[in-house]
Amino acid sequence: MTERPDFNDPSLPTIVVGHPAIVNFRGEEVVVPEGLLERALEELGQLEVRLAAEEEISFDAGERFLRQVYAVVDRVGEAVSPGMSCQSGCSACCRVMVATTAAEAALIGRRMERALERERSDWKHEIVNRNELLDRLAERSYPSSDLTTFGGLLETCEMYERENRPCPFLGSDRLCQIYEDRPLLCRVCWVLTDPADCSPGQGPPIKFRSRVFEKAHALCGEISRIHFRDVRVSPIPYWFRNDG
Ligand code: SF4
Ligand code: SF4
Fold it and tell me: Is 196's pLDDT higher than 80?
């Protein structure tokens, strides 16, 4: 068998997935269809060009671009999903701080508007609760961590993970209740390692590294800047802290 790559090496090539040495925790080799990631990168590149040339600046246009980014990333995920460790109902990764851009948060906001009153009210209750926790954790630093920046998120994310609190949108069946509208990080959080390694205090799990994800993330930021005039990144609940 080929030597196992160093998954934490930042100079890794375009993909870690598909490296011949990659085997999942079940001992199966994970193979990526030839050209899959190259095609995805090309599609994201085309989207980037169209985004720069788009004349209509609006939330609707931003949402259309965002959904196209998600579609590209999801196609990659579906193609390699048979080798993944992740299963429906496996949700330790829904207990970490998920950084989200303005465009992604707007999509979730629209999902909340479409929800039934009872569902929306349950989510809002959880959101208030999670924001109280986030504020408390942010205040442990001096000066307080700014939870609208990556720096602030980095200062608090480990403390948040130790609290082991589920995302406000995680159902009691451990399924995401906003699955079609979930943010990018939830779409690219795949591992090959034992799901038990994802639990706090275990692991660490081995996450995939791919330039497709990096490019998709950069595009989410660009869509937010252009169509939402907002370059902040925040944990999901934080975007809704002022919602009644
Ligand atoms: S990242 Fe870990 S906890 Fe999340 S679905 Fe995959 S195996 Fe399960
Ligand atoms: S949005 Fe959904 S997938 Fe993402 S952390 Fe929340 S419950 Fe989990």
Answer: yes
